[in-house]
Amino acid sequence: MFYSISLYLALGVFAIGSVYKLYTWLTWKVGVFGSEFTGSQRLWAAIRGVVVVIFSARVLVLLRTLILDVILQLRIAKESRLRWIGHLLMYSGFTLLLLMHAMENLITARLFSNYYSTLNPFLFLRNFFGLMIFTGIGIAVYRRFILKVPRLMTNIMDRYIIAILAVIIVSGFLLEGSKMSSYSEFTRMVEDYSFIYDEVDRLALESYWGLEYGTVSPNVKRPFEEQMVTEGHGLHEDYCAHCHAPNKSAFAGYAVARGMGPIALFLDRINTTAVLWHIHFLACFFGLAYLPFSKMFHIFSSSFGLLANAVMNPKQSHPANIATRQALELDACTHCGTCSLRCSVAVAYETNGNLMVLPSEKLTFLKDYAAGKNFSQGVIDAVHEGFCLCTNCNRCTAVCPVGINLKDLWLSARESILEKGGPDFLVLSPFSFFRGLNRRLLPARGYERPLNAAMETMGAAFPLVQKTESLIPVIPADPMFKAQTLNSPCGATFVNCFACENCTTVCPVVQAYENPQDAVGLLPHQIMRSLGLGQKDLALGSPMLWNCLTCYQCQEHCPQGVKVTDILYELKNMAVRSVTAGSLNHPSRLDN
Amino acid sequence: MKYALFLGCNIPARVHQYELSARAVLTALNVELTDIRAFGCCGYPMRNSDLETYLLFSAKSLALAEREGLDVLTLCQCCFGSLKMAAHLLATNAALKEGVNEFLDKKNLHYGGTGKVTHLLSLLHNDVGEAVIKKSIKTPFKDLKIAAHYGCHALRPSNVMQFDDPVAPKMLDTLVSLTGAKSVDWPQKLECCGAPLMGVNDDLSMRLAVKKLAGAKASGADFLSVSCPWCQIRFDDAQVEDDGVVKAGLPSILYTQLLGLGMGIPGEKLGLSRNNKDFSGINTLIANR
Question: What ipTM does this complex have?
Fold first, then answer.
């Protein structure tokens, strides 16, 4: 009764959870692309899309992906052999146990007319499949906690998955062992399946089972009398053997039973078997009910994601379907960390500690963000930096074992992140190249915002450049600033400047404007000059810094060996440092 | 000759044809390439805001190549410039080098500064050599006029890059002429393509690219030839704008594609169809066809 109620309860929660997930896939908005579609529009587009693919030649692509990527999971094999083995062990072991053991009445008993869970090969296979999962969990623990694969972040959800699987499998083994060693379990079977009423016969069977089956009897103890064992064996053959294979073939359960031996009678008295049985099935039902809300749902979402990506492309697919796929992909992520391991700019995470630089953590954030969770400004700024600090090399997409199209996800989500938070000065660097390249695809509204915000913040921090009317006090110069520039790796060369203006003359940026000073503020030679005067505001506040192409014409043509371009680079560093000093709030300390 | 191939970020993601054609050409010229999977970004875009982090980016990759005992070969001018500049700064500034190694030590890596960084053009011109390349040309071009675009970060600062004469470079012109094409003289040959400001100051970036394209066109060139993914994207992209601003009509071809065609390597192995701007017309300028 309790069993049935909890099972149906779990199934109910699972069903509701799955429907809720479907609902989120159709309604969550990840970024700017496809954000104009409503849930019902997305539903119809999805149905149409699926039907069209199924009744076209592309169904073959679907089939190929299903076999290679979903079932055989070759994308994981490409990344790491050990991981692939671990995952396959867990996934196939679990599937087989689910079909053969958990659903024995529905499947196994119908397929095999003489099915008994105590007969081989079932008795053996149950242990074998369990061992497969157990080994898989072991590999997962080894990779996460011992090998410590670089940048493989372990969050609460990852721990939960390992824990729930471990509880299910370990409780299963313990339950089996406890049943084997349990005297009351033995008594029940004798009463149900034999016609042994004689006390001596019964002791004989107990001796045999005690020796061979791990049963611990209060009446007979090791070493068993040889005569009794032989007699017991005969009785066993008569009453037991035809529907109970040797417990030793259930190697794990048998080992547990032997281990429990010394305290088996005590365990039996406190009804350990029933306790373990409840733990075992409740853990399974809990896992089932919580599945749609945990990363275990990747069983479905990752498969759907792989299949969808195999037949979709940005040019032909309906934008509503792309929006749906991107919402689905947030669930498809298993937080395996492959993208972060291969990320081209991961070094930046190691120096600035901003987790949001790593693609796997950005995606985890996006999931909460799409779900409407509120974040502090500090987190938003960190995410802002994470989205800017990306060279769009597409490696994350190339290596993702579940085929998430991360590059398109970033392109779409970046814009909605850039709408808030910041300013971030990385946008004033070649990190913005990809955004510029895709300008035509992005909404015009908001494109300039991050750039303007960064430039305006710089302007406000060093206002002197814009106040062309104001008098500039030459004395006192900023001695700290001058010392700083003199000590920087390339900076000191500015002392050689004799203001010949060669740098400005050859500068293609200066040449491109009729009134360059209006456009970019101080020109290169003037910046060099302001360094000589120790004028920090003038040197750091000129928009020229952020409009420098770094083409090195100025430096190459300086007759005095002033490293003009290198100095401009250093001034940019200083400007960023002085504007952001103390305001950076990375979530490295945040528990994710 | 064996090198660790440093592809950087742009080539695998957006200019795959550069990798394809470079591999095809280098294989034919018996240059052996090794891929080091842990190579990351060279740090170029990082240098704007944080010199130290930029150096770590570069040093990590240089140390990885050093561990394999290989010199680094770059196809990208900006990767080349960044790695070379990092090597220069680390060689001349002991404190920076110490800081970098403190970071690398934790990864069981070490930057000693023994490895070299070479750009593809130098490799072809100086190490493979004119004679070998000339011999490899099976289908030389005839009447093809090319505007050679050098790219800033390989040329300058010349004392660090040690690439070619910064004022009158010849390397790419020589390499172009080996294919039978004529390298035309044009005023903006050494100017910047505008790519570094794309996404920051789009208007300026576009104007610089257009100015170069127009200059090359006016000098009678049929095609532009480049050897940097940033330049290639900038020029290729500038021409797909359909708003009437850009009608330069001067397709840009990667030098490795040009050389590959001259060597008789089929177009699909050079990724010709991946270029935005169609330049199939180039086939009519091959002499033996």
Answer: 0.95
